[in-house]
Structure formats: C-alpha cells, structure tokens
Amino acid sequence: MKPTDTANPDYFHQVVDCQWACPAHTDVPGYIRLIAQGRFDDAYMLNRKSNVFPAILGRVCDRPCEPACRRSRVEDKPVAICRLKRVAADNRGDIMDRLPTAPAKKNGKRVACIGAGCASLAVANDLIPLGYEIVMYEALDKPGGLMRTNIPAFRLPVDVLDEEINMILDMGVDLRLNTPVESMAALLEENYDAVFVGSGAPKGKNLEIPGRYDDEDHVHIGINWLESVAFGHIDSIGEKVLIIGVGNTAMDCCRTSLRLGAKDVKVMARKPRDFFKASDWELEDAEEENVEIVVNRQPKAFVIENGKLAGMTFDVMEYDVDKKGRITDTRMTGEEFFPADDVVLAIGQENAFPWVERDLGIEFDKWDVPVVDRTTHESTRKGVFFGGDAAFGPENIIWAVEHAHQSAISIHKHCLGEDVNNRLPDGMNLVSTKMGMHEWSYSNDYDPQERNIVPHVDLATRFRELDIEVELGFSAEQAAEEVERCLNCDIQTVFTEKLCIECDACIDICPVNCLTITQNGSEEHLRMRLNAPAENLEQGLYVSAELPQTARVMVKDEDLCVHCGLCAERCPTGPGICRNLACCIPTCLTRQSPTPRRKCASLGPEQRRKEQNKHRRVQVDRFLTGF
Amino acid sequence: MSYIRKPRIIHRGLARNDLGLTVRDYEGGMSTLCAGCGHDSVTGALVQAAFELSIPPHQMAKLSGIGCSSKTPAYFLQQSHGFNSVHGRMPSVATGANAVNGDLYYVGVSGDGDTLSIGLGQFMHAVRRNVNMLYLIENNGVYGLTKGQFSASADVGSRAKKGEENIQPPIDPCQTVIAQGGSFVARSFSGDKEQLVPLIKAGLAHRGFALIDIISPCVTFNDHEGSTKSYQFTRDHYHPAIHADYVPPSEEILAEYEEGAAMPVILHDGSTIVLRKADAAYDPTNRAKSLAMLQESQASAEIMTGVLYIDESKPEMHEVYQTTDDPLLDIDYGRLCPGSDKLAALQERFR
Fold this sequence. Notes:
heterodimer; A: 627 residues; alpha/beta; FAD/NAD(P)-binding domain; five-stranded parallel β-sheet; 22 helices; B: 351 residues; Rossmann fold; ten-stranded mixed β-sheet; two-stranded antiparallel sheet; 20% strand; globular
C-alpha cells in the first residue's frame, strides 16, 4: 500500500467516528473533555458553534453519533454522547455575553426565511452576525416549528425550547407570526436578496382504508394531533387508543395519549421488531410506560358501530426473513379485531408545497418535491434555497441544522455575487498533546466503566401533568463517570518514520494490538497479517512510508485505538506520536487564511510548503465562540 | 517506562490458544525499563511463544539474577513461579529448582554482566550439567544499570557513548557454550520477532540446556554510532544463517523446503524444528564446524543468527544423575522422608 496521505483533512476526521457521523460535525470528544474539566460554559459554546441548539438536541437528538461511537467496539454500549450534551446545557452559567450579536452596521441584504423552525432559526443564527436582515414567516403563533408542535413537552420542556430560540431571535429577527406564506410568487416580488425555505414536512400521511372518514373525530393524523395537544386544543383522548405505525412520532403519540387519560395504548406495527423505524431508546422509553407494541398487524379497516369508532381490523402477517435480515416472503394468515376509542395515524410525513407556483423556475421532480442541490441547497431558481425537512423530506433536527449552515454559506456567497459551488475545503489542525514525561493533555487511561443510565421520574409521578420532563439528566457523579468512557478518538497517532529505530516498543505495549511493523503488501493481504486481523473494512489502515532500517512499514488499524498514549510513551525517539486533531469545518463565518499558523508538525519544511499550497487552510473565525 | 498500566481490553479479533487464553493472559506487570529497550521486545517474544505453545502459566518458573535484564521476568507470565536471585547465581537456583521438580518449564533470563562477568562460573556449570532449562542472555554489551560501562561481551573497537573504545576481547557465550558441550545454542536479535519466537519455542521444547544469546540493544547507553550492539549496526551485520520453523508434536510438516537446505530435528517432546540453512553445506549438529563458523564470523564482525548448534541426544541432568522423574512435591511424605531410623541405617553403612 502507498503511505497514507494524512495531510488530507478527511483522513483523520474520519477516524473521529462520532464527529464524522454527526451531520453538523460537532466536536464531540472536545466538548466531553471540557465537561470532564467542569468547563460547562465552554462545552456549551463549543456545541453551539456546530449544532446551535445544545440543550434541545441534548434531549431529543436522533444521535447519529452514538451508533458510530468506538466505545461500542470495546463494550456493548456507546458513550452517552447526547445526554452529556445536556449535562453541558444544564450546568452552564450565564453565557449571554458570549453569544453572537448583530453588528451595528448592517450589510444591507435582506433574506426571507419561510417557517420558524430549526432550519430557519439556524440560518438566522449564521447570517445575522454578518449584518443580514432576516425576515422570518411563521404560520403559527409561536416560533419553533416541529420542535414545539411535534415533540411533546415531557421530552422537551417549553422553557428549554424558548431559551435557545430566543438566543437567536434576540439578535434581531423580524419574526412575523401568524403569517403563512400563501404564494411564493408574491414573496419573490418583495425583492429579497435571497429566500430560504425551511417550512419542514408538515403533511402527515393518511391511511386510505375502509371506514377512514366515517368517524373523523376519533381518527387523528399523528403530527397534527400532537400539534393540537402542544397548543392546548386537545386535552383528552379515549381509554383505548391504537397508534398505527412504529416510528418516533408513534412513540410520542402513544406516550402523549397516556398523559391525556388513555388507559390501554397499543402501537400496531406491520413488521417485526427488527424493522421498526423508531430509535431503540424511544422504544424503550415507551415500553417502560407499559405501552404494548403489537407486531405483524397490517391495518385493514376501521370498524364503525352506530356511527362511532369501535376499533380496527388487521391482517395478521407472517414474514420469511433471510440471513441478511431481508424479507423474502409475506403471507396473511388471518384477521384480528382490536377495540379502540381513538386511533392515531403515525405512518410518516412529507413535505408539500401547494403555495409554490410551478412557473417560477423552481423545478419539482416526478414525486412533486423540489429539485435541490445536495451541497449548495440551491433550487433551480437562483437565490432560492431549501433546507431542513423541506429540502429532501423528513430527517431530523441535526440534519436541519447542517442544511442551515450550508444554506447560509450559499446565501452569503449568492449575496456577494460569488459562485455558490466554490466552497472552502475542510481544514485541520494537529497539536501535540504531550505535556510532560507521562503527562497528556487528556485523560489517557482507560476506564472500564459501563454506560450510565439517565434517571427517570417515577411512573406514578410523570403522568400527573402533560409537561413533566421524564428524564432527569445525569447527576454530577454519573456525568463524571460517563465522560471518562470517551476514548478521545480525536487524538491521532502520527508516525515520524525517519526517526524510527524499529525497536517494537509501541507494538508490544499496544493494549488492542492495533499497531504492526511488517513487510508492505496489498491492503487485503496486510489486513490479514496484522497483529490482530483488521476485519472492519469500513475503517482504514494507516500505513507509514518505508522505515529507515529494514524498509518495512508501520501499520495502524484505525478500527480500534483507545488512545492510551502508551505507544508514544514507549517511543524512545522522542517526538511523541499522539496529537490532538481539531477539525475546521467551514461555516459562512469562516475566512480563508493564506498563511496557516500551524500545520501538521510531522512534515518537513519543504513538504509543509507543498501541502500548504495543495490544501488551502481554513481558519475558523473565533469571535463567535471565544475559542 | 510508563505511568499507567496497559489497559486490560481484549480485542474481539484476538486469537485464543488451546487453553482458551489470549496472548494478553501471558503478560506480566508494567515494564519499568527505558522506552525502546530491547529487553521489552524479548518479553514480547516470550509472551508470544508461551501463548503459542499453550503453556499453562503455572507450569513455568522464571528465574533471574541482577541487572536490567533480570527485571524482565516481572513483565511476562504474571501467573508463573518466579525467583529473583543474587547477582550471577541464577544458574544454581535454577539447577536446584529443576532437581526437585523437573516438570516445570524453566526460563532463566540474564544479561551479559550477570552471565559473563559475575556469574560465568555458575553459568558454565549449569551448561555442564545440561540442566533442562531455557537460558536467555539479553546481550547489549554494556552495564546499563550502572550507566553504560563496557561489559564482557563488548566487541573490540566498539565505542561507548562518550567515545572511548573497548580494547578487551569479548567472551562469546555461543562459542563458550559449544566448547563446553552445550546441547542447544542459538543467537537472535530482539528486533526480529519472526526469528526469535520460533527459537524460544524450540528452546523450551529442547531437553537440556538451551542457550539463546539475544542481541538486545541498550537504547540509552549503547545505541549510538560506533557501537556494535546498536539497532542499526545489528541490522547492518545481521545474517539469519539458520532459520528455525517450530512444528508442534500434533502437526505435520506442511511447508515445502528446498532439498538439502532444510534439516528437520525431532525434539524430545515429539515436536520438530525444521532448520532452514542459508548455506546448505552448514551442519548445525557438527560441533567443530559450528565453532569454526562462529570464529570466522566473529573475525569478520558479522552476526550469525539462528540455531547454531544442536545435539538432541545429550542426556540432561536428571538422566545423568538417575534421579526420580516425579517432582518431590508429588512424592508421598513417608517415601520422601523415611524417618530417622532409615537415616541411621544409611549412615551405618558408611561407618
């Protein structure tokens, strides 16, 4: 194999699996270390820089980072990354003076944001400090979008939501509540410099089966029903409730039903458990509240007696599943009736744009969704951008935030008259973590602690009010334990080949056998020859240049490294090979810096100059966060 | 040395041996030797060899004297027996231990000072008795623990860190042991585990005294230019003359070897070492030729490695003395200590 090109920022960034998996590239190991040091304000601000809503996401994020977490390659369960985010938010002090502000002198550009949900708010958060004037249109009488209407208060308290929304609105957003945009054409006539559509996916899917419209008062569309509950228009439900669908919205619907007086709530799933769309933790939380999940039942008809809903009939399904977990055959083996006073349909949602005229140059594809560029978020009409669920259909808050960051870059470029496709590359900064003989700037010892469980309000208490937050958050002791579970994957091993004397010290000491010195070969061959076979093909091999004495190569299997730093401690040639990686993900506030201050220190001066020309460096503007 | 202990994590892909143990189960305490010390690599090779042979850790006894090398037994097979003896006296302790319990694997770890200076007399007598043990010399040519003076194995012309030249001729443990009639003599290098691990396995399987002289560079006092025991010098003058492939008793020899260049030697326990010779004419069972080859290579400053001499037929200590095969531990107390009447009768015979 050829020596690995570690000057490419993507190489080391990919090794930080949590950060790589996070759509907004939150610096997870970085903020976990800050929490460990008790620097909650700094941890909160570091989070806010990437994900804008740390307190909200610390409760309701879909956590793409956790399945990626390397801790689950050592133990069963990943680090509780999401709930540690909440620890930072819960324990922070007053950070108001560290928040971005609008400059006194505006830049004269006006941007319309449609919808006041997470995507539009995050766009405003990025653009206002640059002097933009943001006009935000919202159909409802409160901002927050899906975060307010679809996420029940027992998971996300209203005051937490309001606080983080206000951090953005207080910079000076022209928020127009109760003002649905009914015509895109009319809006475009107002001559905004750019339009951002962050109107979400507000249309809940319907279930067109017999009896659907015979008792409409007792058959509800999930997201609309949750919205009515959130705004206090609905405050009760029948004793027996059936929830159709088994996604995260279904989990919110069944748990909300219990708080509105339902006694017997069943979630009806068409397929077996392995095919559920809901996140594992949301399923667990619902089952903890004694919600019954019934599998293999396909809705057939609503049963109406005397004009009133009596229940539903279902086909009983049977599936053949192959070894890879795919369904190969489906059979109906019978029919079953389940009584119900109310039925809530939670089978998905979609974006809908009846208010966008089709002759404006905004193209729609054959499924009637707008054609949006995956990178720039620009529609086929220049200056009109889509983000959040409105862009590519329902995803989640953290994706909406990332869409917003990218859209803000595009909007800024559009307003400057630049090409929206000419975007800054990602950058990186490698800094030595060695502080002394056996001292590292991070906690390098491995803690065999298992994942902590967030304490919940007891079952008897939590149903008394609709808005009692079920999760209490980690205690100080739990947080202190949980932060030590992080394996500090942003600490990178950097080989300094020319100094290596091939004494094998690093190889012998590695507790997970991830290092090997061996003859070079093809990747396939090398993977089998390492000290522990590198079977996780998704993780790269870091291959050094030829070593000076024997022309062998040093190989690191990136699959599992616990960053104990022992290889560097045992290295007799001095420089220490563990360095902290700071990924520089550009936002619209990022300026390109022609002369990098620090560069991968393992490079020689000539090589360094070459790399500088090859990879234009990126310097994140620091005034926003104070870092 | 390092401050934290090596974390106890078992990699999913880590192999298990016949006893169901992983290589990590054969490790010992945290090394306090210098970073980059060759001795730590020897430790790594011992751990690997014991793991591959599926030796039950409690079936091994580790013995040492004094010196950097003699700290090594603390760093492997934590669950084995161990004895850290007086300087240079480890061979006698090993002889005594072996006399009362021949069932254990005995591994003596010593250095060039402990073996060739203060302990030379003890060492030669263990060779002479052909005590059934594996004797490792971690040979770095200096007294590391007393800050780098030349040892008895330093080559003429080798320079110390501050520049002075060694003028006294070295004692070559391999030549000395062959001359004394040792039954297994090998040389290796801490930086070549591919060679060292099979050698250790063969040495453990060999019945009788097995010597492996391991060039194990002192990274602090003898790894500079001008030293003849540095990593760089050793690699530049390194000649793996006779490779040893260890084949356990239960396995067939599957690899194909070139005619004449490979020589299988069946060891006492039924295992085989296949000696792959760089020079087909070389016969490692011929004492005179082995000695001649070593003297030639010494004169040309080349380091010949591999199994240099082997004699599987030589009886080991218990056979010579016709002592009991059973460890004294397992012998019934009444038989082991027949009482004062029997002693008096025995003494009567000599009056």
